[in-house]
Amino acid sequence: MTKLQYKTIELKDVELKSEEDGATFSGYASVFNGNDLVGDTILPGAYKDAIENFTPKMFFNHDSYSLPIGKWIKVEEDEKGLKVIGELTPGNPQSEAVKAALKHGTVDGLSIGYKLVASGYKRKKDGGRTIEKIEALPEISIVTFPCDQSARIDSKSEDIDELKTVRDFENYLRDAGGFSKAEATALCAKARAVFSDQGEPDGEEKAQKEVCERIKALAERFN
């Protein structure tokens, strides 16, 4: 089974306009032929099959356990990248909050939730991957942090201290990346403490192991 992966990008040149009670906006969820923070390059045509018969869902910060905040009314490749047009759901309180944040510029990122298989990419000699085919694109989220996350990395240790629940860990790990081995160790220790307090006795050890394995994998990827 392939795991869901995430890539974020700044929502540049966004056009946001209100229509009746909702809001539509456009931007790029992915740009071709560049090098992102982990050295990956996505080639034109990579999304063709993934979006041909399926329209991704729209969430905020990849919270797929919640009600979608809107819908993508157009998802297509052009010469630049994956162009999207979205419409926020009228009457949904979170959608209204995101609409206000987009207008104010306090939220300016998009992030794809995607799946790869081994045949869909090639490893680069200097690190990273050349991605030729995205196997699946279940969702595209509006996110708080775009691709340049330097400020967030600096405050990561403080963020770890604030993790109190299993859901906190789920949300944190969806958007995490770029932390040091020391921070990864601290996060594992915090996971053990939180899961000991809240986990079911039979599943506690398994849950701790899964979280720590995911943390270590992220740390190795970015160091």
Question: How would you describe this protein?
Answer:
The protein is globular, with a radius of gyration of 18 Å. It has helices at residues 48-52, 93-104, 150-154, 156-161, 166-175, 181-198, 201-222; strands at residues 5-10, 15-19, 22-31, 41-42, 57-60, 70-77, 81-88, 109-115, 121-123, 129-131, 136-143. Helix 6 (181-198) runs antiparallel to helix 7. 35% of the residues lie in helices and 29% in strands. It has 223 residues and is of the alpha+beta class. The protein is built from seven helices and eleven strands. It has an eight-stranded mixed beta sheet with strand order 1-8-11-5-6-7-3-2. A three-stranded mixed beta sheet has the order 4-10-9, with no helix packed on it.
Q: What features would you highlight for this structure?
A:
peptidase activity, 7 helices, 3-stranded mixed beta sheet, HK97 family phage prohead protease, alpha+beta, protease, 8-stranded mixed beta sheet
Write a brief caption for the model:
Keywords: Hydrolase, Protease, Viral release from host cell. The chain has 223 residues and is α+β, with helices and mostly antiparallel strands.
